[in-house]
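User: Let's play a game. I give you a shape written as tokens, and you guess the letters that built it. Ready? Here's round one.
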């Protein structure tokens, strides 16, 4: 008999607290990683506790999953036994003021559960806040979040760790999920299901993420019960979309999860084995620097910083910092040549084309790479460098923006891409001697 403590001393918290500690314990099985788009390897104040830019899902020491058991109708859900019992997982679907369906959940020895949301309460393993596009060095805070406190949950199969399923909504500290009167819900046969206010959207690549040949899929909505639906008319519309029969809530390498305010990338353990490591990427930067790229104006050697921030106080000397002309791709150092009055644009001294100029910065988060190779391309307008296949993959991925609309973004900083094609091939003046 397994004795479960309440959430405050749950082993979930301890494990999620430090993926380094988890690594040192050498757990047998890694399911995969969730990486928030828009952070180049870490959160600006540093990764702390359950708030970090990525979360590694390891097999739990003991199973933590739950599965549906019985369901019944009650008049007053808030005073029903399953809701009051804080050890009992349950979902309450309010149908009217005096009728609700309660679905009880029981411990599932076959699965591990991981919960994601904005809440810092203990049932949330991975705390995710709204992502602000662009430079993260400022102290920007989102005043009104659109991410749910208990946004979604993932159940990973302990005996077949390649299978991890996602469901909308997470259990709160009392192990309840409440779908209020206004939430979209429906009953088919004996099963009841529903959607959360802003919903949880998923997007599977068509084809393998690794290799860069995948075609973009379509955004779908996943229900509380794990069903797949086409998108609603608007993000929080009352009417659910159509059932999508041939797609599932099983995460694939490269699946995107949108929580309305932050988008997560799922990388399977298997997929990550075919991806570069941070060390690989640093070595590729070193190789570019070994060619001693030169500024054609100042004739000084440029050094691509390995560091990931776009802020001014980088370790690299400002004189050595390379800049790219976004319209032509010529890489140069900082100089005043070609600056037009009252314009953000400059004339490139090599090809004389006018265009915006931006600092080059390595995309150092390995999970966003679809292949391994020299980072000879950069996103427009932010200047994050990556491989050709990686930039060409991300320009074709529409990321939900707010509650309506989609934008292709740089995965390293979440800046919406500008111009067409949204990236530039870098032209270094290197290996000159
Ligand atoms: Zn040029
Ligand atoms: Zn960027």
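Assistant: Ready! My guess for every position:
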């Amino acid at each position: 008999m397994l004795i479960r403590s309440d959430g405050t001393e749950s082993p979930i918290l301890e494990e999620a607290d430090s993926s380094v500690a988890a690594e040192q314990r050498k757990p047998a099985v890694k399911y995969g990683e969730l990486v928030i788009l828009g952070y180049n390897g870490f959160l600006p104040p540093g990764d702390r506790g359950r708030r970090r830019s990525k979360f590694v899902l390891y097999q739990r020491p003991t199973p933590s999953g739950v599965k549906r058991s019985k369901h019944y109708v009650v008049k007053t859900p808030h005073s029903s036994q399953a809701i009051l019992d804080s050890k009992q997982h349950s979902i309450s679907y309010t149908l009217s003021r005096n009728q609700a369906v309660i679905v009880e959940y029981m411990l599932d020895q076959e699965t591990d559960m991981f919960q994601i949301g904005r809440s810092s309460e203990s049932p949330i393993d991975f705390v995710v806040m709204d992502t602000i596009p662009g430079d993260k060095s400022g102290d920007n805070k989102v005043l009104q979040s659109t991410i749910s406190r208990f946004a979604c949950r993932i159940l990973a199969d302990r005996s077949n760790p390649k299978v991890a399923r996602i469901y909308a909504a997470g259990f709160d500290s009392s192990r309840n999920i409440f779908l209020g009167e206004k939430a979209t819900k429906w009953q088919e046969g004996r099963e009841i299901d529903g959607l959360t206010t802003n919903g949880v959207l998923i997007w599977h690549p068509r084809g393998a993420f690794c290799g860069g040949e995948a075609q973009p899929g379509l955004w779908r909505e996943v229900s509380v019960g794990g069903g797949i639906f086409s998108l609603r008319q608007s993000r929080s519309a009352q009417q659910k979309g159509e059932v999508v029969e041939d797609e599932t809530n099983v995460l694939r390498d490269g699946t995107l999860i949108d929580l309305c305010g932050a988008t997560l990338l799922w990388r399977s353990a298997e997929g990550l084995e075919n991806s570069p490591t941070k060390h690989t990427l640093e070595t590729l930067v070193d190789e570019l620097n070994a060619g001693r790229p030169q500024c054609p104006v100042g004739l000084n050697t440029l050094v691509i910083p390995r560091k990931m921030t776009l802020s001014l106080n980088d370790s690299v000397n400002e004189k050595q910092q390379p800049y790219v002309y976004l319209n032509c791709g010529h890489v140069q150092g900082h100089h005043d040549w070609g600056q037009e009055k009252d314009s953000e644009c400059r004339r490139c001294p090599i090809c004389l084309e006018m265009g915006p100029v931006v600092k080059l910065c390595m995309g150092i988060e390995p999970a966003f790479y679809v292949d391994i190779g020299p980072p000879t391309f950069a996103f427009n307008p932010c200047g994050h460098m990556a491989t050709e296949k990686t930039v060409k993959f991300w320009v074709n991925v529409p990321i939900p923006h707010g509650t309506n609309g989609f934008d292709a973004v740089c995965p390293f900083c979440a800046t919406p891409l500008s111009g067409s094609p949204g990236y530039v091939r870098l032209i270094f003046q290197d290996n000159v001697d």
